[in-house]
Write a structure and sequence with these properties.
By secondary structure, the chain is an alpha+beta fold. It contains 17 helices and ten strands. The strands form four sheets. A four-stranded antiparallel β-sheet has the order 1-2-7-4, with helices on both faces. Strands 3-10 form a two-stranded parallel ribbon. Strands 5-6 form a two-stranded antiparallel sheet. The chain binds cobalamin and iron/sulfur cluster (SF4) (2 copies).
Length: 375
């Protein structure tokens, strides 16, 4: 009991409202029966596009002891990130939607061209640190040392399915883990451990049934709102058509069909979450300062700056944020697509400057856009 209180205090200090335990000994067959087949079907339909890393290590997905020997439990935490949560309280909603501009109303942040999850520091690093803190605290409390591994979107692991089975929420038709009362704008962070924590510390904070009995019902708002029709059917996202995939993970030029959608994004996409009624939450959440403080350069730089940045500026402006996932060339490509889509008059001159770029993807993008500009 004492352990639980200590841990809960630590979680509260860090703004974690939701935590759950998944026992591999008791529940792993559920993952094997439900999620492995769903995942394999998704891969077999090539819905993962060019994310071939997802094909690797299926064995570890089936047997997590290949990730951590003798793993017994997964402690799973939800970390809210969106300072822009839609809240029922109109005053708060307005405060969030009108991002406080420090500097430039043309900046990529002011124009909401980057997804909410990228606003602050890179969540992988921030959350690994948090998980290590929690593990150290637990070690102290339990007395006996145990093995653990911090997992944040980093290994072949079903972050959402395990969180669902730990009663942290349900999977929506938009494929997001949704926690009623909290929405879906959160990261999932997991601590795998060989300690028998469930016996001594039940971290489930709320009534399991209250969460598990809720679902999407007849709603189809996310499916209808997706600008590229990326949902082949409910609960099935075809990454080939998803702007999040195309702007973050795709390492080549993007098909002409999708370029006009870059008018509204340079990095990631939040639309299928923005429209979800579960994100119209009644209260706001304490968010880690690393996620709630806007990364300074995002408040200043514009799409034009991005299109023309060199690699040093890229490091200075994007280093330490999750946007580095698209890499230098990917971000320049996205910025060029944006400028084309909004018919920015400076684009022809920018394309002229970049036509001697030493970077292959940038060159390919310049050639693609020159053809489109003439058409
Ligand atoms: C690859 C990936 C992507 C891909 C593919 C997304 C997708 N829907 O599959 C792309 C690049 C498009 C993407 C986009 C985004 N991502 Co992403 N992504 C991942 C990653 C690395 C793997 C997801 C995966 O395996 N997909 C394959 C599908 C089949 O698996 P799944 O969606 O997890 O579904 C499982 C279950 O739901 C179940 N299942 C699915 N369908 C069905 C149907 C039935 C009938 C049954 C029984 C079961 C079942 O089976 C699956 C396997 O367990 C995870 C991290 C991780 N390791 O899990 C983050 C993760 C899913 N992403 C995350 C985020 C934040 C995003 C974005 C919001 C970022 C953005 N703003 O642009 C968008 C959201 C788009 C969306 N609607 O999903 C968060 C989601 C948090 C949450 N609340 O759910 C995760 C969990 C990272 C994290 N640890 O926080 N992502
Ligand atoms: S992230 Fe955007 S493009 Fe991808 S499925 Fe959701 S709404 Fe569609
Ligand atoms: S928008 Fe509607 S259908 Fe989509 S995830 Fe939310 S509740 Fe479910």
């Amino acid at each position: 009991m004492k352990l639980k209180k200590e841990i809960l205090d630590l979680l509260n200090q860090n703004g974690i409202l939701s935590a759950g335990v998944f026992s591999f000994e008791k529940n792993h067959s559920l993952i094997l029966e439900k999620d492995i087949p769903a995942f394999q079907k998704w891969l077999s339909e090539n819905a993962h596009a060019k994310m071939t890393f997802l094909e690797n290590n299926i064995e570890a997905r089936k047997d997590p002891s290949l990730i951590l020997p003798n793993v017994k439990n997964a402690l799973i935490f939800l970390f809210p990130y969106a300072a822009g949560h839609r809240v029922r309280n109109k005053k708060k909603e307005n405060a969030h939607n009108n991002i406080q501009l420090n500097h430039n109303s043309e900046s990529i942040l002011a124009k909401k061209l980057i997804s909410k999850y990228v606003y602050g520091k890179d969540y992988h690093k921030v959350l690994k640190k948090q998980l290590n803190l929690i593990a150290t605290k637990l070690q102290k409390q339990i007395g006996n040392p145990f093995q653990f591994r911090a997992v944040v979107d980093s290994i072949p692991f079903f972050d959402r399915a395990y969180a669902r089975e730990a009663a942290l929420g349900f999977i929506g038709k938009n494929t997001m883990l949704i926690r009623p009362g909290m929405g879906s704008f959160f990261f999932i962070a997991t601590l795998l451990t060989d300690a028998s924590i469930q016996d001594i510390c039940d971290l489930n904070l709320e009534n399991k049934n209250a969460i598990l009995n809720l679902d999407c019902g007849d709603c189809t708002k996310c499916l209808d709102a997706c600008p590229t029709q990326a949902f082949k059917k409910p609960y099935f996202l075809d990454a080939n058509r998803c702007l999040s995939y195309l702007s973050i993970e795709h390492r080549d030029i993007v098909d002409n069909e999708f370029i006009p959608h870059f008018a509204n994004t340079i990095y990631g996409c939040d639309i299928c979450q923005e429209v979800c009624p579960y994100n119209l939450v009644t209260s706001d959440f304490k968010i880690l300062k690393e996620f709630s403080n806007y990364h300074n350069p995002f408040q200043i730089i514009t799409a034009k700056d991005m299109a023309l940045m060199d690699t040093d500026q890229y490091e200075k402006w994007f280093g330490g944020t999750a946007a580095t996932r698209a890499k230098y060339q990917g971000l320049v490509r996205n910025a060029l697509y944006h400028l084309h889509s909004v018919s920015d008059s400076s684009l022809p001159a920018i394309l002229d400057k970049l036509c001697a770029s030493e970077y292959e993807l940038i060159l390919k993008t310049v050639m693609q856009l020159r053809v489109l500009q003439k058409a």
